[in-house]
Design brief:
Number of helices: 9
InterPro entries: Ig-like_dom, Ig-like_dom_sf, Ig-like_fold, Ig_sub, Ig_sub2, IL-1_rcpt_fam, IL-1_rcpt_I-typ, IL-1_rcpt_I/II-typ
Number of domains: 4
GO molecular function, one term: interleukin-1, type I, activating receptor activity
CATH topology of the largest domain: Immunoglobulin-like
Structural class: alpha+beta
Shape: rod-shaped
Membrane topology: Single-pass type I membrane protein
Keywords: Disulfide bond, Glycoprotein, Hydrolase, Immunoglobulin domain, Inflammatory response, Membrane, NAD, Receptor, Repeat, Signal, Transmembrane, Transmembrane helix
CATH architecture of the largest domain: Sandwich
Family: Belongs to the interleukin-1 receptor family.
Strand content: 25-35%
Helix content: 10-25%
Bound molecules: 2-acetamido-2-deoxy-beta-D-glucopyranose
Strand order of the largest sheet: 1-9-15-14-11
Radius of gyration: 61 Å
CATH superfamily of the largest domain: Immunoglobulins
Distance between the termini: 136 Å
């Protein structure tokens, strides 16, 4: 009973069955041929004691209606019964309640109606019931309390929608046994309509139908909106290392019991970092929408914050919903670093190359000096001389002291200071030996050929001393791989008059120009010129090189 009263709280009745004092003349309806039991509206007044007499009268009659149970119209348990009602029963009835000291009376109006043509109900005689969409709703078959069987067994209720049975086959509809109601899960707008319930009432061995028709109204309520993440939406955001980020997750819904929460690395964010301090909030929005949110501050983004996805969860209808956000370092900056790194690398290589270009000779010489002792003796190549020196012999017509250079300065530096072993044509050769055969042999025994050039072609002793055969011979040697070092004693602008082989050598190896004087004073092996020469000379184990600055 209690639960029935609770359910009745949901009802808006077109028919004010229990409207009590509010109605002056209270209306009652009954389908023709069906039984009905009418209670006197004043009976609910609490002032009445159990010790009272109730009397029913037909309008205008002083004769109380009988309490004889077999009569079609009778009074039983204070109720006025019509079993069943006929069309002629329509009209006014009075009930009078008489206690010891006071009495009260009410008039009720009974309307006995017929069903609409072809329908199981009358469109004007309906109970209106309202349910919210997307929610659980119920349809109640009202006012059946008085129609218990004589055995006090709850009667079976049959249900119809638009006068057709079978709608209960939809799993969303569940009969609420004992409550004369139907539960509807996930109410949709399509559920609106005319529902009729019918039960069979047996009285005095006769069966009667008792039916009610409810007009179900489905209200589409924003309150029942499914919860949705506003933010995040499985997205990635770029944040700078060390920057401040407010991590906010919010969910919009029609209910206010959602509690979203953050998780990272399979734990709460506050466990991940105690400075985060997650905070829950909830705020109402227009149209009955509630936004539930949770947020925390990352006051300084750390590297570990880039490593995990931050998951925001909430539970709705025992289901977990998840959306995540991932922090990433800004892409442009990475690109920037890469480009910057690339540029500086290229720049570094460039600078290194320039430095190498400028200091190549010094580096190679330093390397030879510092590293060679440790590299061990070079395998002997079977050669005697480090260089074979060819120079134009001084003639009266020549202004150049090529003799001094070749016979004094060159040996002073390369032989005495640097420890090279030179074959100088015109110094080491024995007079009378055949020039060609000596040159041939000595060049083969040398690792380099040093050719000293002067600008005046007339001075060329090479041409003078050596025949075409001589030149052809050392051309061949050049092709054998012997390196040639050209030393210009003065800038030579024009090589056109030089022999072909000299032109070739100049083109292939270039020339080193002497810039010093021709005095016989000591020349330092560490001047630029001599460094260049030494660079082109074969590397040499340390020997007499210790005396770089020996005085003459
Ligand atoms: C009710 O009616 C009975 C007899 O009809 C009478 O004896 C009794 O006193 C009445 N009670 C009251 C409260 O009027
Ligand atoms: C009720 O009774 C009064 C007086 O007897 C009469 O005038 C009136 O018409 C009746 N009303 C109905 C609806 O029967
Ligand atoms: C009835 O009225 C009398 C006097 O008016 C009063 O004393 C008595 O208590 C009343 N009885 C009830 C049951 O109200
Ligand atoms: C309910 O019945 C009324 C007639 O009383 C009808 O006009 C209406 O269309 C019905 N509702 C539905 C949903 O069929
Ligand atoms: C109600 O709807 C939800 C979501 O659409 C579904 O999971 C659930 O099974 C439905 N309930 C019934 C009884 O159909
Ligand atoms: C009750 O109603 C049903 C369906 O309308 C009908 O088949 C049956 O005969 C009725 N019973 C009585 C006793 O009127
Ligand atoms: C939800 O969170 C986002 C991201 O922080 C924020 O921009 C938005 O204003 C929030 N929405 C509401 C209604 O609080
Ligand atoms: C998070 O940072 C905002 C400023 O962006 C500040 O107003 C708020 O108080 C901070 N919250 C916490 C818990 O530190
Ligand atoms: C977001 O990711 C979570 C878990 O990775 C997943 O369950 C969810 O369906 C995703 N949501 C969307 C809109 O892709």
């Amino acid at each position: 009973m209690t639960s029935t009263f609770l359910l009745i709280g949901h009802l808006i009745l077109l028919i004010p069955l229990f409207s009590a004092e509010e109605c002056i003349v209270c209306d009652y309806f009954v389908l023709v041929g069906e039984p009905t039991a009418i209670s006197c509206p004043v009976i609910t007044l609490p002032a009445l004691h159990s010790d009272y007499n109730m009397t029913w009268y037909k309008n205008g009659s002083n004769t109380p209606i009988t309490t004889e149970k077999h009569a079609r119209i009778h009074v039983r348990k204070g109720l006025l019964w019509f079993i069943p009602a006929t069309l002629e029963d329509s009209g006014l009835y009075e009930c009078e309640v008489r206690g010891l000291n006071r009495s009260n009376q009410k008039t009720i109006n009974l309307k006995v109606f017929k069903n609409d043509n072809g329908l199981c109900f009358n469109g004007k005689m309906k109970y209106e019931q309202v349910v919210n969409s997307a929610n659980i709703g119920n349809i109640i078959c009202p006012d059946l309390e008085n129609f218990k069987d004589e055995d006090n067994v709850k009667p079976e209720v049959h249900w119809y929608k638009e006068c057709k049975p079978g709608f209960l086959e939809d799993k969303r509809f569940v009969l609420a046994e004992g409550e004369n109601a139907v539960l509807i899960h996930n109410v949709s707008v399509q559920d609106k309509g005319n529902y009729t319930c019918r039960m069979v009432y047996t009285y005095m061995g006769k069966q009667y139908n008792v039916s009610r028709t409810m007009s179900l109204v489905v209200k589409e309520s924003p309150l029942q909106m499914r919860p949705e993440f506003i933010y995040p939406k499985n997205n990635t955001i770029e944040v700078e290392l060390g920057s401040h980020v407010v991590m906010e997750c919010n969910v919009s819904s029609g209910i206010n019991s959602l509690i979203p929460y953050w998780e990272v690395n399979d734990g709460y964010v506050d466990d991940f970092d105690s400075t985060y301090r997650e905070q829950f909030y909830e705020k109402g929005m227009p149209h009955g929408i509630t936004v539930a949110g949770t947020k925390f501050n990352i006051s300084k983004v750390k590297v570990k914050d880039y490593a995990y996805k931050f998951f925001c969860h909430f539970i709705y209808e025992s289901q977990q919903f998840t959306s995540y956000i991932k922090l990433e370092p800004p892409a442009q900056n990475i690109q920037g670093y890469l480009i910057g790194g690339g540029v500086s690398l290229v720049f570094l290589v460039f600078v290194t190359l320039i430095i190498y270009k400028i200091f190549k000779i010094d580096i190679v010489l330093w390397y030879r000096n510092s590293c060679h002792p440790f590299l061990g003796e070079k395998a002997s190549d079977g050669k005697i001389y480090d260089a074979y020196v060819l120079y134009p012999k001084n003639r009266e017509s020549c202004l150049y002291s090529s003799d001094i250079f070749a016979l004094k300065i060159l040996p002073e530096v390369l032989e005495r200071q640097c420890g090279y072993n030179l074959f100088i044509f015109g110094r080491n050769d024995l007079p009378g030996e055949a020039v060609i055969s000596i040159a041939d042999e000595k060049i083969r025994q040398s690792r380099r050929v040093i050719v000293i050039l002067v600008p005046e072609p007339s001075c060329y002793s090479i041409l003078e001393d050596a025949s075409e055969k001589h030149l052809a011979m050392y051309n061949a040697l050049i092709q054998d791989g012997i390196k040639v070092i050209l030393i210009e004693l003065e800038k030579i602008h024009d090589y056109t008059n030089m022999p072909e082989s000299i032109k070739y050598i100049k083109q292939k190896y270039g020339a080193i120009r002497w810039k010093g004087d021709f005095s016989e004073r000591s020349h330092s092996a560490s001047t630029r010129f001599w460094k260049k020469v030494r660079y082109h000379m074969p590397s040499r184990k340390r020997g007499s090189s210790s005396g770089f600055h020996l005085l003459p």
